[in-house]
């Protein structure tokens, strides 16, 4: 778009009915010479939208100019046509043609114009609505362009407090993914840094040197009353020095055990110790903290009241023990935030998925009408699995929810495949799937043809793809972000050719592995520079 009216038209056109005319709209916009009007009198009405009827108001204007209807009569006519009742359509058609011919228009032209109105009546969008939406789109795009970090922090805050449940989780997750794409770091919750909403602080290696700190309001089980109590205690006494200090200073009726457990599990108190250890000793620490508060209320001084880090609580109350596993920590994060923030279980497998041309789930969810029956390969994590039995012969099959770092999709595993792949469908398994896209109720799902555990391939239980020759090699840094891998994947697919490319990376065991892409690329010094730019940016 290069003018405001283009945005308004985009809003009106990007809907199930009028989407079929988007290409025609673009053709007219790019080449005015290709615009054709059924009659010159339609040009003043349709010129703004490059010869395409987009708005309800245009229907009223056409009816008014061509057939002499008043605008009130034109609206009644438009509604009647939109109902698609045969008897009503015939009556209105004859009336329209008669009135237009009385104004001097030829019958053939009038019939064609009526056909335009008839086609349009089912999808026309109110211009006032479209213009309002376009204004919001323009304003938010301006803010995002000029103040990207501030805009995304505000968006995250609004999404976190504006809804609840899966809808909220999905919206916040999408916004965080957009931050990643833009190069904005989103820092995890911190008991001494987080506030109610998402806030901006200094961020090394983040866009404009500014990062976004995760807000308390987006953590499950942490309500407004608890947040205000934490912030009030922090305002009066400064940062919390330890979990002992925290339990003495906050109102434990407002910040109850469930709230505190959630804060620990999500990592907001990681500076005070390992999450597993803090949780194991939490009851004892809260109890002693409550005693200190009662003594202060009663005017009794504690032995160590001048030391805000302990009170009479001993650090020995926190035992030495192993931290939760990486998978357990990520699961806690997913449970309490609704998505993975600091990492994703699938990230360690991204180089392999890239080499195997794995499709991102978000790509499957777009333009789903064009994806039907398409064969795809994707890697993901099983987040849920529902076992059912067929009615015919009571055979086992499953409906499985698969997730990657970009979204989730339902996979259908029919009996024959399920019997061979049962081990793949338990929660948290990382799987590599091949299957066909199917559209059900306008939503895509995946019919599984093949599946295997990706962990087995990593552990060497599945025979590793043998690499014999390649023309050039890319060494991937160990900390390469998912966003950069996605960018690299898109670049290489755009530059396909005859040169074999090997990806070199360090696996979880510290071994250097190389995988040859299943497609060749058109190697050049320019391509090498583009690859380097993505990796080093």
Automatic annotation (TrEMBL):
Q: Which UniProt keywords apply?
A: Nucleotidyltransferase, Transferase
Q: Where is the DNA polymerase helix-hairpin-helix motif domain?
A: 183-275
- Protein name as catalogued: DNA polymerase III subunit alpha
BP terms from Gene Ontology: DNA replication
Record domain OB: where: 376-454
* Keyword Nucleotidyltransferase part of the UniProt annotation: yes
Please give the Gene Ontology molecular function terms for this protein. 3'-5' exonuclease activity; DNA-directed DNA polymerase activity; nucleic acid binding
Annotated organism of origin: Candidatus Shapirobacteria bacterium CG07_land_8_20_14_0_80_39_12
Membrane spanning residue stretches: none
Q: Which residues form the DNA polymerase III alpha subunit finger domain?
A: 1-104
| Documented EC number(s) | 2.7.7.7
């Amino acid at each position: 778009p290069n003018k405001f009216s283009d945005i308004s038209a985009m809003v009106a056109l990007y809907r199930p009915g009028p989407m079929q005319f988007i290409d025609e709209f673009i053709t007219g916009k790019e080449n005015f010479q290709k615009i054709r009007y059924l009659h010159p009198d339609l040009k003043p009405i349709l010129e703004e939208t490059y010869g395409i009827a987009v708005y309800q108001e245009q229907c009223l204007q056409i009816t008014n100019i061509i057939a002499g209807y008043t605008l009130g009569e034109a609206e009644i006519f438009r509604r009647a046509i939109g109902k698609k009742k045969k008897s009503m359509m015939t009556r209105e058609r004859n009336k329209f043609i008669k009135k237009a011919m009385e104004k001097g228009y030829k019958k053939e032209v009038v019939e064609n114009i009526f056909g335009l109105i008839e086609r349009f009546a089912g999808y026309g969008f109110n211009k006032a609505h479209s213009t309002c939406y376009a204004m919001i789109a323009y304003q938010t795009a301006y803010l995002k362009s000029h103040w990207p970090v501030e805009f995304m922090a505000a968006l995250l805050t609004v999404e976190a407090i504006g809804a609840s449940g899966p809808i909220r989780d999905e919206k916040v997750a999408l916004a965080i993914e957009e931050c990643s794409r833009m190069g904005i770091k989103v820092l995890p919750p911190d008991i001494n840094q987080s506030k109610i909403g998402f806030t901006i602080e200094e961020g090394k290696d983040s866009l404009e040197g500014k990062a976004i700190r995760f807000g308390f309001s987006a953590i499950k089980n942490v309500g407004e009353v608890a947040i205000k109590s934490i912030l009030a205690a922090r305002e009066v006494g400064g940062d919390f020095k330890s979990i002992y200090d925290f339990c003495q200073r906050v109102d434990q009726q407002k910040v109850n055990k469930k709230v505190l457990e959630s804060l620990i599990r999500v990592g907001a108190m990681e500076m005070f110790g390992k999450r597993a250890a803090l949780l194991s000793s939490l009851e004892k620490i809260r109890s002693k903290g409550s005693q200190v508060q009662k003594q202060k209320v009663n005017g009794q001084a504690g032995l160590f009241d001048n030391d805000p880090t302990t009170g009479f609580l001993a650090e020995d109350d926190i035992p030495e023990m192993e931290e939760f596993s990486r998978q357990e920590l990520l699961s806690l994060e997913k449970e309490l935030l609704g998505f993975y923030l600091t990492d994703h279980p699938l990230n360690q497998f991204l180089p392999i998925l890239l080499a195997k041309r794995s499709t991102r789930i978000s790509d499957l969810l777009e333009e789903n009408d064009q994806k039907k029956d398409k064969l795809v390969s994707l890697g993901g994590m099983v987040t849920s699995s529902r076992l059912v039995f067929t009615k015919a012969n009571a055979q086992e099959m499953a409906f499985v929810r698969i997730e990657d770092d970009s979204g989730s999709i339902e996979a259908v595993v029919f009996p024959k495949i399920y019997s061979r792949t049962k081990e793949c469908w338990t929660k948290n398994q990382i799987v590599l799937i091949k299957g066909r896209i199917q559209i059900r109720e306008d939503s895509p799902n995946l019919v599984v043809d093949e599946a295997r555990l990706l962990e087995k391939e990593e552990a060497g239980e599945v025979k590793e793809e043998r690499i014999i020759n390649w023309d050039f090699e890319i060494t991937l840094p160990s900390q390469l972000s998912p966003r950069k891998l996605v960018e690299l994947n898109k670049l290489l697919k755009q530059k396909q050719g005859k040169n074999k490319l090997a990806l070199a990376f360090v696996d979880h065991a510290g071994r250097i592995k190389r995988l040859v892409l299943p497609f060749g690329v058109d190697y050049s010094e320019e391509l090498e520079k583009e690859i380097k730019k993505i990796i080093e940016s």
